[in-house]
Amino acid sequence: MDVFHSVAQARDQLYGCAVAIGNFDGVHPGHHRLLELARELSRPRGTKAVLLTFEPHPAKILSPDFAPPLIATLPRKLQLLEAEGLDAVVLQRFDRAYAGTSPDDFVMRDLLDGMGARDIVVGYDFTFGKGRAGTPDVLARLAGTSAKVHTVPAVTREGLAVSSSKIRELVLEGRVGPAADLLGRPFVLDGEVVPGRGRGTKIGVPTANVAPDTELLPAAGVYAVRVAVEGMEGTVGGAANIGRKPTFGDEELTVEVHLFDVDANLYGKRMAVAFLQRLRAEQRFASVEELVARIHLDIDEARAIAGRQADLPLVTVQRAFAN
Fold it and tell me: What is the reaction catalyzed (predicted)?
């Protein structure tokens, strides 16, 4: 899959393409539908199926105080898009200047002239251009006979529209099981193992302290997980704790993972942590002994859950992205 870092960089290389447009945070089943249609439309012509997306997320520029935490890092997003069978992704830099692009310029300059699009695929709620003045109807009018616009309706699960916003909400609440139902796979946190305080080792339950690259974090609590570790094959089961360790009076929020049947120095290793199920909320215990007893119960439960979900092909280690 080719990755272009602007429409200008992709110029003259995508002529005749079918392009889907959007932020595509998380690459969920609603996004799958758009990408599937782009592939179907491009194949009879022998042209490319492309995604035009924006980096950073427009909300980070337009409303930084209200910008949502992203479900996936950019490397994770690109991995998921490549798995969709796309030929190319255009990562258009989004800044204040680009936010001022008129709907006419976006369609004529970027889509038709810059990318040579012949089919344009968007979601039912797509908006574009300065002040979000463009809609699918405006897009179709501006494209005229040069390109055909295809508007895809919402994808639903049990009557609920699948959206990045709803997935974020579920993860933030710690409801990682329902979030996985909407995502089509478990939520994954990417990060690097860094030194911690070593308390896990002292109480007989060593943990890897993960500095997350992923912006979105599940609610504080204990989770059953499967983990990909840099330099190791496949994934291993584990139990993760997100929280401030109230039993010890700590204030710093940490992400710690105990890996089952792994005895290795993991400092500096990259990890991908797939959250399978929340076991309990964070608790303060009366003593360290009471905490340790509960941790062992958590480990037994997490081991059983992780053992039932060993096949997670997209849970692989991703490097931090360098522009």
Answer: FMN + ATP + H(+) = FAD + diphosphate; riboflavin + ATP = FMN + ADP + H(+)
Q: How many CB atoms lie within 10 A of CB 130?
A: 14
180-307 belongs to which homologous superfamily?
Riboflavin kinase-like (2.40.30.30)
Supply angle C-alpha 28, 302, 73, rounded to 5. 30
pTM for the full predicted model = 0.91
Residue 312 confidence (pLDDT) = 78
The sign of the dihedral angle between the CA atoms of 61, 322, 2, 39 is negative
String of DSSP letters for 14-29: STT-EEEES--TT--H
**H or E element: which one contains 200?**
helix 199-202
Domains 2-157 and 180-307 share a fold: no
Helix or strand holding residue 4 (H, E): strand 2-4
In degrees, rounded to 5, the angle at the alpha carbon of residue 191 between the alpha carbons of residues 224 and 306 is 20
Contact (CB, 8 A) for 4 and 90: yes
Q: Which CATH architecture has domain 2-157?
A: 3-Layer(aba) Sandwich (3.40)
Residue 48 burial (C-beta neighbours within 10 Å; 0-12, 13-18, 19+): buried
Give tens-digit pLDDT for 25-73.
999 999 999 999 999 999 999 999 999 999 999 999 999 999 999 999 9
List the domain boundaries for the chain: 2-157, 180-307
